[in-house]
Every structure is written in C-alpha cells, then in structure tokens.
C-alpha cells in the first residue's frame, strides 16, 4: 500500500493503464501544455497536474493537446472509441459540458442502443467539478445529476485515492462511456492505495460509517462533509450510516435501501441546486421503495435554486456544509 | 478513366442500388408503413460512390441524416437496411435506430446521425485512432452545405489540422439545407472549399453528379492524406431530387427545377453516356445490373414487410455493454 | 372565444405580440423558409408551421432565418435580450439543447445573478419536444427536467390552446428567460382560446380533474394520457385529481401538496427516463413536505433508463401510456 | 494622429489605468485576500482602448475571462470593479460575479465571460438588436487566439455575415491560450484574420501594442460597419505580460521573454515616445496622469479592502426578475 493523494492516484493510474493497453489515448486542452511555445511540450502539464509525464512517455499520437474546442474533443473521443481505441478526454471544468453536451448525450451515450447493441464506445471523460475555490457561476458546478439522468452513460465520483485508482481502472477496462468526476477540492486528499492491479466495481457503494441511527447518502465532496457531520453527531451519541455512492449510474440501490430499512431516516447531501437533483432522485427512490421503513421525511441537503456565487461569504452560504448535514440529521431524528 | 470493367460495373451497381432503394422508399413511404423521418439521397449517388470506392472496410466514415447512400456505398447490407427502415427486429440496428441511425462497424460505417454536424469531430477521432495503427487508414466525414455552418464542423477541421490527423471532410453541397439555399446560409457565397482552406488544409472541388470527376479528385485527395500530409477536404457540387424529407412540399424549388435536374444532372445517365461513348461498357451490361438491382430491392421490401417487429420487452436492452 | 389548435394559438399569439411590441424579434432555422431559393422567403414556413406570415409582416430585421448554428442562435438571442430586445428563438427539436446548452445554461440563465441583479434577459426559447412520431433517439426527447434543474430559467409546457396563448403571452411580457416547450404531438389539439389579451401566470397549475382518490401530477402529453386514464378509472368509480403543472419552474408546490394532503396518494407521469427526473423531483417534494399525508409510496410513471427507440412497437413500449398511469393509480390505491 | 490633446490624454489615462489596476492586482493577489481566478490584461491595453475609444455607451461589447481592460476602456467604474474583484457587497456585480463576470449594461459592457467563445454570438445578437434601432450602433466581441478555435466563434461569424449584422469581431492575438502557443492551436499558422475573411467578411490587421495603429484601423473598420456593410473583423497582434492566470509559473515562456516584451512591446512606452516625438504632449502631462491614476488605484484598493462583504442571506437573490 502506497500513500498518495487523489491527483497522484489518477496520474499514476493513467500512466500504468497506458503502459498496459496501447489503445488508450488521452486528449484535452493543455494536458501536455507548452505546445507551440518556447518552452515546448510539457513545459507545463495540465492545470490540474493529473497528466504529467504522459507525453514524454507515449508521444504525440497518444497524448494529444487540443485547441479550445470541447465539442470536437468529446466528439473525437466518441469517434476514436467507436474506432476501437480507449480515449480519455479531459474537460478542464465540468461546466464545459455546456459546450459539448451533444457529443456526450446524443452521441456517445446513444450509439450502442441506436445501433442495435452492435457497437461499443469505451470513452472515459474526466470532468473536473465542484465549488470551493471561488471560481464562480461558470467554473464551479457539479453536473453529475444531468449526466446521471442520461441512459447510456456511467457516472463515477471517487472520493479517496484508492477509489480514484480502482474506479479509473474499472472505467478503462470497461466497454461503456464513463463520466469520471474529479472534485477540484479533493485532489489533495491523501490515503492508502493498493499496489498493483486494483479495480473497484461500479454500482457498489462504500459504507464510510456505520451508525444505525440515520442514513446519510452522499457523493463527492459531500462525503467528506458527511464525515465531519458524523464526528459532531457521534460526540452526541448519534451514529449515522454514511454512504459514499462512488457511482451514481449505476446506483447501488440496495446499499441505500438496506440502510434506510434499518434506520428509517434518510438524508441526502448533494452539491447541486435542488430541482431534479441527485438528492431528489435518491429521496424519491427511498420514498418509493422503502416507504414503510421511513420514519421521517427525507431530508435533502442541497444548494439553493441559484447559480454559484463568487464571493467567499456567498459561496460558503451556497455550498451544503457539514453543519447543514448535521442539522438535517437532527431534524430527521427529531421528527415524530 | 482507367478503371477496369469490373470496377465500372461495380460502381454503376452501387449507384443504381442507391437510386432504386430510394425511389422505392419514396413509393413505400406513401403507404404509411414506414414511420419517422426519411431523407432520401437520390441525385447524390455519384458522390457517395465516387468517394467510398476508394475506401476499404478498414477506413471509417461517419454519415448524416441523409445516410442511405453512404451506407450502401460503404457496403452495408441492403436488405438489413431496408428492415431497419421498416423498424424490424432483425433490421441492421434491430429497429432501434431507423433511417437516421444506421451503422455497421464491420464495414467501417460508424453511423448516420440525426444531429447535423455531429459527425465531423467523430471522423477526426476515427482518424486519430486509425493513425495509431499505422496502416494508412482514414476517418472520413460526409457533411452537407447546411452542416458546414455548425460549430462542430469548424472545430473538427481546425482540430484535424492541428493534430495532422488523416481526416477527410467531404462536403456534399446539394444547395439546400432543408428549405434554405446555400447562397443564403453559407456566408462565403456558397464556397465551402475555401473555408476548409482557411483552416489550413488542402481542398479539392469536384462535380458530385459525375462519378468520374469525384472519383479522380478523391484519388488525389486520398493519396495525399494517406501519405501522412494531414487532413483534406473536398466540396462536391451535387443535387437532391426529392424533398428535404419525405413529405416536404418543396415550394422553395423553382418551376420545373427537379425535372431539369433529373434531365441534366443525373449521375446515372451521365455514367451511362460516358462509358457508352468511351465504349467501355455495353448498355446491355448496365441494363442487366439494373434488373438485378430491381430484383434485390423488390426482395428487400418484400422481406422487410414480412419481417417480425421488435419485441417491446426488449425496449431497454443494449443500453450498456454491462450495467 | 375562438376555437383553434395549439399551433394556431402559438402563431397567432406571436403575430399579435409582435404587432404590440416592436422589440420582439424571432429567429431560428427555416422559420421563414425559402431564403436563398427560387421560391424565395416564406416559400415554406418553419417545419412546424408556427411562424407563417411573420416575415411578410415584420420583415427580415425582426424575423430572422439562421444557418444551422444553434449555439449562435441561442447566443444571439441572449445578446439581443441583454441589449433590450425580446428575442424568440426556435430550437426545431428540443434535443438540440445538446448543441446549444452553454448559451442556455451558463449564459442566459446566469446573467442576472452573476451581474448582481442589474440585467434582464427576456429571451424566449421555443423547444419542440417529445416522442410519439417515431423520430428516434435524437429527435424525441423531453428535456424539461434538465432545464428545470437550472436556476435562472423558467420552464413552461402548455397542453391546451388557451394555455399556449396565455403562457406565451406571459413569457413575452416577463423579464426572465423562458423555455417554452411545444409537444410535437399536441400541435393539433383544439380548444377554446380567450379573445384579446390573455395571460396565464407561471407557477399556477391547472386542476384538470378533481376526483379526490389519488393525485396524478403531469405535464405535456402526459396530461392528455392522464385524462384517458382518469376516464377509465372513473368507469370503476375511482376519481383522481389530475394536475397539469403548466410550468415546472416555477413549480406550483401548493397545488400538489394540497391535493396529496387530501388524497394521500401520488402518481407522477413524466415522459422521460427515470433518473433525476421531474417525476423524482415531485415525488421527493411530496415525500419531504407531505410525508405524514402519504398513504402509499409515490408512483413514478416514466420511460425506462434507455434512449428512445425508433420502431413503432418499441417507442410505444418506451412512452408512459394511459394504461401505465392507470395501473400506477390502482397500485397506489391498493397499497395498505 | 489627428487626435486632439484631450483625447490623447484620455487615451493615455485609460491605458495607464488598466496598467496600474492590473499591476496592483498582481501584488494584491499575493496577499491571499482576492480569491478565485484572475486573468490580467497587462500588455494589451492599447487593444482595448484603441478599440473602445471609437465606441459610445450605446455601442455594446462582450468580453472574455480577461476582461478588466475591456471594462475600463468601455467606462466601467474602476472602484466598483475593484470591489467586485474583492468580492464586496457593493462591487459592480454585488460580489456575485468576481473578476470573470463583470458587466455594466449602462455603459454598453454586456459582460466578461468565463466560457471561452461564448461572447461572439452574443455580440451578433446585440448587433441585430442595435440595427433595429437604426442609429448605427454596433455589437462587438473581444476574443482571444484561443477563443478563435471555439465553434461558437465560427458560428457567430457566419451568422453575422448571413444576416449582415453590424457586428465586429476583435481578435486579440496575444499568442497564447493558457500555456499553448497560437502557432500550435490555430490551424492557419496563426493567421486569424484570414479565417474571418473566409467567412465572407472584411478583416483588418493592426498592431495591438500600438494605440495609434489600432485606433486608425478601427476607425476604418467602424466606418465600414456603421455604414451598413455588415460585419467585420480585426486581428490585433498583442502581448500578455503576466501568466495566463495569477499563479501560472509560465514555464512555457522563453528565457527573458517577458522582459523583452516589456522592453519592446509596451504600449505605454510606445505611446509616450510617439506623442513625445511628435511634440503632441509633454512628458509632464503624462506624468501627471500617471500620478492621478496611481492615486485612483490606491483609493480603489483601500476602499475595496474596507468595504463590507455580501450578506450570506442574499445568496439566492436576483436569480430572476420575478419568480
Ligand atoms: C443540430 C441540428 N440542427 C438542425 C437539424 C434539423 N435538420 C435536419 S437536416 C437539416 C438540413 C441539413 O442540411 P445539409 O447539411 O445541407 O444536408 P442535406 O439535408 O442537404 O443532406 C436540418 C436543419 C438537425 N437535425 N440537427
Ligand atoms: C469553453 C472553455 N474552455 C476552456 C476554458 C479554459 N480557459 C480559460 S481561458 C483559456 C485560454 C483562452 O485563450 P485566449 O482565447 O487566447 O485568451 P487569452 O487567455 O489569451 O486572453 C482557456 C483554455 C474556458 N474557460 N472555457
Ligand atoms: Mg444540403
Ligand atoms: Mg490568447
């Protein structure tokens, strides 16, 4: 077991998988960095530092710096995947699904179905997402709900270095398009990572805490916030089941329902505006399938129905906090 | 025109098959048996065939909403296509795609596409993939004069130039996008090739109603691209004989426009005339092909009609390889 | 009161409002039709027949045929709205939000908020949507959930000619961006339309049936299917409250909650795949806010987690049918 | 250079204000008080000012992520901008937007934009709107060499040509998009103007580090556009003195590159030299301006620092006019 952070887990997994499988190519803006400059290629890696050394090792045919053309990037990934390769495309900010959605939604996601199950489109799209760095309304969004809604896509959100490795490996070994979400505030999160091959199956949630009094379902940064809330609650003798979904599509319904059947209380923490959100999705699932177990109304902890603001104070008010999760747990428990 | 006899007959057969397929669909659609949107390729046959006759199954094309011609030219099974358009269980795409979404990866046909302009970046991706294998394969996108105004098409051209991908952009200018003329919608007074040049690639121009002109230009173009010179484009001047989709009243056409086009711009007539004058083929050879094609299409329709529909229980199958 | 269909209600409202307000402009692909052809402008109107006569009356400066460039169309609408006009942009198929999402989501929707409340962006986007015409995976989708999720947008879905007029007028008089959804199978629906000025406020649902045994919430074509289900159920003495949301953003929470408080049973019919859908949104809302009233698990009637197929038999299997709505009501009532 | 003295001083003041604003931000950002992404415009001042000096408040511009210079040149309040960048309650956008999202409709500044390429279509819309009022107003988009590869920019150019909108596309080629050179990412060997020409519009080229060259080219261009000839483009050759964003280690720069640029391509130095040689202004006049500008920026920072933060309770205000 090595100790590394999520950034390192991702870059080392990319490196290892590209070595193993020559059909893997990566493409995106500035993932090499320095092309056409005095400094030359790899003068600077991608702005997130997740792709260093790939160009030097695998060359320009497999590590492709692109112009600012997200539709073309995702479209090229779609085409390369149909053509038998395994492209890994980077969207520097997940918000840029706005300028590339068609290729994700109407192309990659639908090829296999539209073409009668005769094609595979094993493309991985890495989306850097989330609030917490005051990057304002167009660079802070968590678009996983939008993509979870789309049949044909798989949606993956690692929250630990081990999962980053396990889920990325799984994505690169699978044959479906995978939306791989990397939260910009979690890159530095450290942890143990299994050596050698490590795959984490999709649709298998991680039970982060087992407490039994209430079920908190979360993904991405909300898992970490859930842990903070859990610590505070534990001090008062309240134990929560904290579920890290790991993947929102496929969804581990069983883990959620099993827990709620035991606790009777559901809290969903979701870094997103409230409407048609993942929070609503999980709450509705539980209401529909664990109706008789529920002892309190499902609590959805989300941002407000507003874009994400810039100023520190406002962004902090927008993002669901550990405090808000804690409050929601207490509300659920107080309900009679 | 140094083409051997067999290849000439083959080219004619492919064009005639497209023509017969489409003319027949035009009739069958009136019966109401075929649902959804159908966009006929009639009139543009020389473009698809003149281009695809240079391609092997290893070369990959992406097509458009008007894709039947590209499919047939690239070697998709005609009967399976017909069944697909009829929405049958054993259609080429199990009845899930229909006319606008026909694909057959086994012959390098990566898909028709209902989203105008979506194919061009995919062809660049296919080209990037092809280059990795180092066999001189190409990724090729068919686009219309309408599609050439979509941002994705421009991005794809620039990307292909930047990464020097063996990508080919075939612009079939049939002078209409739906009911709008190219002289209106293409800012550069309907010169698409020069736009491609402005992106930094070489561009060819040819008569897309003339098989030989298209074929010769494509030969040059593909030699250039396969040699590793990066992407290239070609603008093919062509015509569509039917409406934008079946049901289009075509009030935007001039009086007698279609009759005139059928008279003066019919690639099959032109082909016959050319091979006749040059004494390369006997009219009887071509008549025989016509008869065989007619037979094939007749069978295709008969079989498609009789074929079983999809099972509604399968509606959510094949979304993922594994989920 | 005139009798007309939805298509006529829309085109006559556009005509009347453009006469009244010279700041209204319309733009889209082939909305004039025939530009640059022998037939000349208006040789053919838009493919949906909703914009005939506008060009002849208001000229090329206000009725603008565009190239196939949806991002530019929506972007131009956004810019024109900021510049003080009232653009009405047409997306010939709602599925084309894929190629124009950024301008809807990161631009129009966010201007006012990002700019500190100092701007208005009164753009109306008309989206023709829905299954039922065998137009397959890329021309049949109902993207209202995706847009409902986006703060800054209003989402409107008329189901009657009167509402088409009332809601479109309201959209054109308001100062926020409005996504105006027109179901392609509903254009021919006829009904009475009030003469003269007729505005229908947003966020005010329509009670289509009052039955009291169960609450069926629907929008778009599902309202009509809900009526069919209601008729069948009525024959067995079951009376439903059928709620036509009219607008999903803003949402008339009160109408939904009031009804469920009385009936205790919720069924949501939603022409969409299930995940993060409007169905989930409404079910979660009710579970959270009418928890104690609910006597049965919320029933979500949606399409499957699959793209929309082409063949008749498959499309029919995909779309939520009157029968499925009826079954869901019976399931809700049978629950003990 | 027939500009009256007042206007010369004004132009210098605006350029110097941008310079001082940005140099100061560069320092202040190190303190950690300013959060988020900040992209400095230093080095490009002559471009923004040379362009905007022809515009009135009625003309409308859309800007980019690197928008401070455009804002100041267009007349946004400098102190309110500073407060915005500090994320203050009475910032120009109430602290909601920050550096990347500054707008002030009252002076025709329709917004900086965090999405590269998003502005160009909006400028076309503004131009369409402007034309309706018949006062010769224009809609103008600033875009970078990176943005010129985005599909939206291409679509916007074509649309503007097709509808003959009084739209202006200003391409500031500072030779970098983030850490990538224009010679790599712009397929046409870094010639952006010729792409615009290929879309069917007239294009100008000027030195964006030379106020006078930019100003003169823009005069011609705007005469042309305001006269109803449709859209036009200009490519401005310019330089950025800082990194892509604050924090960029700039390892892609050649040794001494920035020093050399500051030496040879500084628009303020060039301006001083030019008006000095031509004896149009006294160095003392310009020194006075510098001092006033320094004072203004000092006050702006002091006031911004002291200004109250937004109220967290307002987080969901102003999403709609009415909901
Ligand atoms: C993104 C998108 N916009 C609009 C349409 C509707 N549409 C389908 S075909 C077409 C015209 C295409 O014209 P062209 O590219 O010239 O191809 P042609 O029909 O002439 O073969 C349009 C506007 C679409 N399918 N996709
Ligand atoms: C759609 C989109 N893609 C990528 C980015 C990330 N990004 C921000 S600025 C930039 C480079 C822009 O280059 P250019 O247009 O030349 O402007 P400059 O930074 O030189 O002013 C990139 C890639 C973005 N903000 N939006
Ligand atoms: Mg065409
Ligand atoms: Mg630049």
Features:
heterotetramer; A: 336 residues; alpha/beta; Rossmann fold; 2 domains; 7-stranded mixed β-sheet; 5-stranded mixed β-sheet; B: 323 residues; 5-stranded parallel β-sheet; two-stranded antiparallel sheet; 7 strands; 45% helix; globular; binds thiamine diphosphate; binds magnesium ion
| Strand element count of chain B | 7
CATH topology of chain B: Rossmann fold
> What is the assigned CATH homologous superfamily of chain B?
Thiamin diphosphate (ThDP)-binding fold, Pyr/PP domains
The N- to C-terminal Cα distance of chain B equals: 53 Å
The number of helical elements of chain A comes to 11
- Largest interface pair: A-C, 55 and 55 residues
Architecture of chain B, CATH level 2?
Answer: 3-Layer(aba) Sandwich
Q: Count up the domains of chain A.
A: 2
Return the average pLDDT of chain A rounded to an integer. Answer: 97
Strand proportion of chain A: 15-25%
What coarse outline of chain B follows from CA principal-axis ratios?
Answer: globular
Bound molecules: thiamine diphosphate, magnesium ion
| CATH homologous superfamily placement of the largest domain in chain A | Thiamin diphosphate (ThDP)-binding fold, Pyr/PP domains
Q: How many individual β-strands of chain A?
A: 14
Number of helices of chain B: 12
Q: Please mark out the parts of chain A with pLDDT under 50 across 5 or more consecutive residues, or reply none.
A: none
In CATH, what is the class of chain B? Answer: Alpha Beta
Average pLDDT rating of chain B:
97
Quaternary: heterotetramer
Shape of chain A: globular
């Amino acid at each position: 077991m090595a100790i590394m952070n999520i950034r390192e887990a991702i870059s080392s997994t990319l490196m290892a998988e590209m070595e193993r499988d020559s059909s893997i190519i990566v493409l995106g803006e500035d993932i090499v960095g320095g092309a056409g400059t005095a400094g030359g290629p790899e003068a600077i890696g991608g702005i997130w530092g997740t792709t260093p050394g790939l160009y030097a090792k695998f060359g320009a045919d497999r590590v492709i710096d692109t112009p600012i053309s997200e539709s073309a990037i995702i479209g090229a990934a779609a085409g390369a995947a149909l053509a038998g390769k395994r492209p890994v495309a980077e969207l520097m900010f997940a918000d840029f699904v706005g300028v590339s959605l068609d290729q994700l939604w109407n192309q990659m996601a639908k090829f296999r179905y539209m073409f009668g199950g005769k094609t595979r489109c094993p493309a991985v799209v890495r989306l850097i997402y989330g609030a917490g760095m005051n990057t304002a309304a167009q660079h802070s969004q968590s678009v996983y709900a939008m993509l979870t809604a789309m049949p044909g896509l798989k949606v993956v959100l690692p929250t630990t270095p081990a999962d980053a490795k396990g889920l990325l490996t799984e994505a690169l070994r699978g044959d479906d398009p995978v939306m791989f979400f990397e939260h910009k505030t979690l890159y530095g999160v450290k942890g143990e990572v299994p050596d050698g091959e490590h795959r984490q199956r999709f649709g298998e949630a991680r039970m982060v805490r087992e407490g039994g009094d209430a079920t908190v379902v979360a993904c991405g940064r909300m898992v970490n916030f859930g842990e903070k809330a859990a610590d505070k609650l534990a001090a008062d003798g309240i134990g929560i089941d904290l579920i890290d979904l790991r993947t929102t599509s496929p969804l581990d319904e069983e883990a959620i329902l099993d827990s709620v059947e035991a606790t009777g209380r559901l809290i969903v923490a979701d870094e997103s505006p409230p409407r048609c959100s993942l929070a609503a999705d999980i709450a509705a699932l539980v209401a529909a399938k664990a109706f008789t177990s529920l002892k309190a109304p499902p609590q959805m902890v989300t941002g407000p129905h507003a874009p994400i603001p810039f100023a520190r104070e406002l962004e902090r008010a927008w993002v669901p906090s550990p405090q808000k999760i804690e409050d929601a747990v207490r509300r659920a428990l107080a309900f009679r | 025109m140094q083409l051997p006899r067999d290849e000439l007959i083959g080219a004619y057969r492919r064009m005639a098959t497209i023509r017969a397929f489409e003319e027949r669909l035009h009739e069958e659609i009136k019966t109401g048996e075929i649902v959804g949107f159908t966009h006929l390729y009639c009139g543009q046959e020389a473009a698809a065939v003149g281009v695809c006759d240079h391609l092997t199954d290893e070369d990959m094309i992406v097509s458009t909403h008007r894709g039947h011609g590209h499919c047939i030219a690239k070697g998709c099974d005609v009967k399976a296509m017909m069944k697909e358009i009829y929405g049958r269980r054993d259609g080429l795409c199990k009845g899930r795609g229909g006319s606008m979404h026909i694909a057959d990866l086994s012959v390098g046909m990566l898909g028709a596409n209902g989203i105008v302009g979506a194919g061009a970046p995919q062809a660049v991706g296919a080209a990037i993939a092809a280059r990795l294998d180092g066999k001189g394969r190409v990724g090729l996108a068919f686009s219309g004069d309408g599609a050439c105004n979509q941002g994705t098409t421009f991005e794809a051209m620039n990307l292909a130039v930047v990464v020097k991908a063996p990508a080919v952009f075939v612009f079939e200018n049939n002078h209409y996008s739906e009911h709008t003329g190219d002289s209106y919608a293409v800012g550069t007074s309907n010169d698409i090739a020069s736009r491609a040049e402005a992106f930094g690639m070489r561009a060819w121009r040819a008569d897309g109603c003339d098989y030989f002109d298209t074929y010769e230009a494509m030969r040059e173009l593909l030699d250039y691209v396969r040699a590793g010179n990066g992407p290239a484009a070609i603008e093919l001047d062509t015509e569509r004989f039917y409406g934008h989709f079946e049901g289009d009243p075509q009030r935007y056409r001039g009086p007698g426009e279609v009759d005139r086009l059928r008279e003066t711009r019919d690639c099959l007539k032109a082909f016959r005339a050319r091979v006749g004058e040059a004494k390369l083929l006997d009219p009887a050879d071509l008549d025989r092909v016509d008869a065989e094609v007619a037979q094939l299409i007749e069978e295709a329709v008969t079989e498609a009609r009789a074929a079983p529909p999809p099972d509604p229980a399968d509606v959510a199958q094949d979304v993922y390889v594994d989920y």
